[in-house]
Amino acid sequence: MIEYESDHNRFIYHYTKLETAEKYILANGTIRLSQYTKTNDPKESSDWKFDLGTNKNADLGKYSREELSKWLSNELKQKTKLACFSKDNSGLDGNNLTDLFKRGYIKPRMWAQYAKNHHGVCLVIDRSKFIKEVKTQVNNEHKIMCGDVEYLNENPIPDRTKQHFLINIDTLESVGKKNYAAQHLYTYYKELFFQKMLDWKDESEWRCLVFTSDKNDLYIDLNNSLMGIIHGEGLNDDEISRLMSLSNKYDLSHLAIKWRNATPWYDYSNPLFWESG
After folding, report:
1. CA 20 to 30 Å from 43, out of 76, 123, 200, 269?
2. How far is the C-alpha of 189 from the C-alpha of 224, rounded, in Å?
3. What's the average pLDDT block by block, 10 residues per block, for the chain (277 residues)?
4. Strands (DSSP E) along 65-154, which ranges?
5. d(Cα 151, Cα 196) in Å, to the nearest integer?
6. Distance CA 139, CA 256 (A)
């Protein structure tokens, strides 16, 4: 049963609206890795601003910082596909009561923000199986990056010792624009794609990115990695029954979260869930 899991690294969780789960994810058996700029974090949705630097006294004056900055920002962001998840906090002991607030699906802000104000679901996905699916389904020539997000507030005054927002003209002239973007990505992908402001820290985010020249979104098969569905407070029995019927082929565990006096608990009283999992 999902709520008794003691390994905090086993599952990742994806919040989504009822319509998305019903019409796309469960109907097609896939989850979308969409364009990086479609997120709601300004660091990710707006253009990055890069400075220019040199270690060999290259003539920086012959380059337009604005043009190069826009070029690299587009190269990195437009070619990166992303899916976002929450994760459990460490220290699970398998007790559904004491573990409750450590679980990645007990996040009211995320239920409100990503699951249509609790009228949606939280998908439970086996992390290692999902990574295996991504590596199997994505072409080997593409860079796959998966991991935890680090939360910190960067100083608004640029730090020249941190070079993830610096275009090295020496390297650019050496390898050419075609290769520079990929090289910059491989060197600084953690700083660029796996750091967010401290205000986001309660999301406990784990994310999967694929760097690809394919302009289309990527769809990853979930047949082996989807383990369960957490149903939101706002779903009625008819909606829950539809989702359970759609997901029969996956043999999933189903739970629902109910809130009483601002405290969440599992909806063990609903007979719809008695034979699940």
Report:
1. 123
2. 28
3. 95 98 95 86 84 90 93 91 96 96 96 96 98 90 91 81 90 92 92 94 95 87 96 96 93 94 93 80
4. 80-87, 120-126, 143-148, 150-151
5. 5
6. 37
What does the pLDDT read at residue 46? 85
CB 65 within 8 Å of CB 52: yes
CB atoms within 10 A of CB 255: 22
Bridge-based pairing state of the strands 150-151 and 195-196 = parallel
Please name the residue that has the structure tokens 């600084």: 188
Determine the 3-state secondary structure of 155 from DSSP.
coil
pLDDT for 29 = 95
Q: Give me the amino acid identity at 117.
A: N
Q: Residue 272 class from Cβ within 10 Å (0-12 exposed, 13-18 middle, 19+ buried)?
A: middle
